[in-house]
Each structure stands twice: as C-alpha cells, then as structure tokens.
C-alpha cells in the first residue's frame, strides 16, 4: 500500500468510524430533510460543507492557523444540535409533490460555516498522524479525499433509507424529519453535556454564583 492509499483509507475510516460518530451525525443532519429526489440540493449542500472543512483542514494542517482542540470538540456537537433544530423548522408542504418544496438558502452558508469548524476537528487527527513528516501535501490530499468518499457513502445510505421509508413505506416526510432530527439533536445534546470543557464552564459559573 502506497502512502497515498494509506492516508486515503485513514480519511475514510475516520469519518465513518462509529466510535467517533460526531461527524457522522452532522452529515446525517445535513441531509435529514431530503430524499433521493432532492439529490441536486444535497449535492450543493454537501459541496458547501466540503469547501468549508477542506479550507480549514488544509490551513490547520499546514500550521497557518492555530486553535484550541478542546474548544473545537465542544463546537462540533453544537453545530450538530443547531443543524438538527433548524431541520425541525423546515417547512414541508402537505402536497405530495416533492418538487414544490424549497430549502432555505440559509442552509448553504450554514453548512459552509460549520464545515470550517469540522475541518479543524479533522486536522487535529491528521496532525497526530503526520508527526514530523516533512512533505504533507500528498497525505493532506489523500486524507481529504478519503473524508469525501466516506461522506458520500453516509449521504447515500441516508437518502436511500429516506426514499424507502417515505416513497415506499409512505411514512410522512415531516414525520421522518422530526424523528431523525430529534434523535440527532438528543445525541448532540448528550455530547455537549458530557464535554469536559462544557462541564468546566458550568462548574466555574456555579462557583461564581455561589
């Protein structure tokens, strides 16, 4: 296996790893209101997220920007929670004509902005892999491509599942959105409450009030 293939595999495994499911949750939250019929909208949305995390992944890995990893670890579940809550306010028309449905234009800059945060999270893992390696451009490219392949796989699974439940099993699209987004919001809230930085901030706040 070449170095390129190794980092490609590491990128794919990182975003699809069930043990680090925060990024998986975010990708699912992004496409929770869509089915296969909406693939063009999903493509634009995922591209916005990709642009965001690609920029910060590169900048952070190249040491152009610096950040506190513990802050990013807290911000990532917050982006998931916000996305899931926004989904619940998405207006799904009562008509069965899915083509009449319009996504809020705010979803795209939101995906781009949150992608910047997730890219910093990806870079923390990649930097730990690179160590003191002199040439990082090839590993960076391969790792990012691996992330995209994993992301595409997650999106396809969610869209196919949504299509089957909504179009074949006739589950209302609104119900599917509420259930999926509600589960994601609950899991994201759990990640936030169990985050060490968040707990430290709460402890500091309570100590000051007392």
Automatic annotation (TrEMBL):
Pfam families: HupE_UreJ_2 (PF13795). It comes from Arundinibacter roseus. The keyword NAD does not apply. This is HupE/UreJ family protein. The keyword Membrane applies. The chain crosses the membrane at residues 20-36, 43-65, 71-89, 110-130, 150-169, 176-193. Keywords: Membrane, Transmembrane, Transmembrane helix.
